[in-house]
Amino acid sequence: MTLDRAAHAAQSAMYIEALNAMAPSQLVWQLVKNYNCFLHKGLNGSQFSAEPGNLYNLNSYKYSGIANEKIVHVEAAEEGSFAVTRNIPKNSNKPRDSRSKATKKNKNFRRAAIRLGKEVHTVRPDLKKAALARASAVNKSQRTTAAKSS
């Protein structure tokens, strides 16, 4: 039975969450830092990671959505908005209840960014800048540009 890419990623993320509930985050990082399904090796020895919760897509412990107990993930939602997903560590053994997802409308992006910054600051203050950068990139990608007339 073959799984599509999104289903495989979701299944891998649930397995890793269960592993995270059983072992310390440093041990999990030592186990998965060089071998996981989200790893992409770039030019000049650089390593990138496409796991959910990794805001900069860098393969490092600080930004890892696999190894850290507290994660924040920002992604594009329907047109004109972005979704913020964060995990709830106390519910890590209940996959359905372990994530909290909220959608922020981009009608006034500055206001949405301030709310996002406050929300991220309560979970992971060290990732506030990264979350705002990701939300800004999502907002920029959703903007439509006027066609130039010649």
Automatic annotation (TrEMBL):
<feature type="domain" description="Ribosomal eL28/Mak16">
    <location>
        <begin position="27"/>
        <end position="141"/>
    </location>
</feature>
<comment type="similarity">
    <text>Belongs to the eukaryotic ribosomal protein eL28 family.</text>
</comment>
<keyword id="KW-0687">Ribonucleoprotein</keyword>
<keyword id="KW-0689">Ribosomal protein</keyword>
<dbReference type="Pfam" id="PF01778">
    <property type="entry name" value="Ribosomal_L28e"/>
</dbReference>
<dbReference type="InterPro" id="IPR002672">
    <property type="entry name" value="Ribosomal_eL28"/>
</dbReference>
<dbReference type="GO" id="GO:1990904">
    <property type="term" value="C:ribonucleoprotein complex"/>
</dbReference>
<dbReference type="GO" id="GO:0006412">
    <property type="term" value="P:translation"/>
</dbReference>
<dbReference type="GO" id="GO:0003735">
    <property type="term" value="F:structural constituent of ribosome"/>
</dbReference>
<feature type="region of interest" description="Disordered">
    <location>
        <begin position="85"/>
        <end position="109"/>
    </location>
</feature>
<dbReference type="InterPro" id="IPR029004">
    <property type="entry name" value="Ribosomal_eL28/Mak16"/>
</dbReference>
<protein>
    <submittedName>
        <fullName>Ribosomal protein L28e</fullName>
    </submittedName>
</protein>
<dbReference type="GO" id="GO:0005840">
    <property type="term" value="C:ribosome"/>
</dbReference>
